[in-house]
Amino acid sequence: MLHDAGFSNWVTTAHKLCKEHPIGNESEIDSFLNLECEPMKRMLKKKSQENFKTTWLTDISDSEKQPKLRTYKKFKSKLQFEPYLNLHNVKIRTAIAQFRLSAHHLRIETGRHTRPYTPADKRFCLKCNDNLIQDEEHHLMLCAAFVNQRMPLLQCAAQYINGFDNLSNTDRFIQIVSSENTKLLTALGTFLIDTAKCS
Ligand SMILES: [Zn+2]
User: Fold this and answer.
1) CB atoms < 10 A from the CB of 92, how many?
2) How do residues 155-198 score in pLDDT, each as one tens digit?
3) CB atoms within 10 A of CB 102
4) What is the rounded CA–CA span in Å between residue 123 and residue 70?
5) What separation in Å is there between the alpha carbon of 111 and the centre of ligand 1?
6) What are the angstrom distances between the C-alpha of 112 and each of 66, 148, 178?
7) How far is the CA of 71 from the centre of ligand 1 (A)?
8) Pair 185, 110 in one domain
9) Is the same domain home to 111 and 139?
10) How far away, in angstroms, is 139 Cα from ligand 1 center?
11) Which of 158, 191, 192, 190 lies closest to 175, judged by CA?
């Protein structure tokens, strides 16, 4: 075979992928490499996807490695296309994307860049002065400075999320941010845009 003669072909790639995404012990790999091209490709693809999902979930759950993703991991437990990306309104779509990825100006994020450095437990909200950390959950669910802007969002959430009124604030936050309902996502984006103007 060309691969055995030192030439690079699809078998070389398969060997490389087998090393990166172990599918079993040595003899299992050998019998696997003897499969026809198509079944092998299908198996490798499936295995690569599974390994990627596992690594991805481990990575986003590691707060020390990824401090910026501390909120993201609360609502992102599945690797899938996010329905909010289907929203037609670009401003709303962008506002939600930035909020989900912590690309915003809340103190939990800006505090990382202050000199001297502000520890996470000292990044208090300067909008309400209630001595509470200004993170995404505080901003969306609690901050007293945005009670009026929050009203339509909560009304919409109560309409589309089962048992919303009985949920904890954290669960309300997770349900809203991970919603697949277009009207609720639009209300979320509108809240984020309105409150950003007050920053
Ligand atoms: Zn506040």
Assistant:
1) 19
2) 999 999 999 999 999 999 999 998 999 999 999 999 999 999 87
3) 18
4) 15
5) 15
6) 13, 29, 26
7) 17
8) yes
9) yes
10) 6
11) 158
Query: Which tens digit of pLDDT belongs to each residue from 16-65?
Result: 666 665 555 666 666 666 666 666 667 667 766 666 666 656 665 665 66
The count of domains in the chain is 2
- Highest mean pLDDT out of 22-31, 64-73, 86-95: 86-95
Whether residues 78 and 31 share a domain: the answer is no
**Has residue 41 been placed in a domain?**
yes
**Residue 101 confidence (pLDDT):** 79
Q: How far is the CA of 41 from the centre of ligand 1 (A)?
A: 52
108 and 146, same domain (yes or no): yes
CA 131 – ligand 1 centroid, Å: 8
Regarding whether 92 and 156 lie in a shared domain, the answer is yes
The reply to whether 123 and 151 lie within a common domain is yes
Q: Residue 157 C-alpha to ligand 1 middle, in angstroms?
A: 21
Quick check: pTM over 0.85?
no
Domain match, 89 and 157 both: yes
Please tell me the distance between residue 143's alpha carbon and the centre of ligand 1 in angstroms: 4
Cα–chain-centroid distance for residue 94? 14
Q: Answer whether residue 107 is part of any domain.
A: yes
Residue 126, pLDDT above cutoff 90: yes
Angular region, 24: left φ>0, alpha ψ -120 to 50, beta rest: left
What domain range is 94 assigned to? 72-197
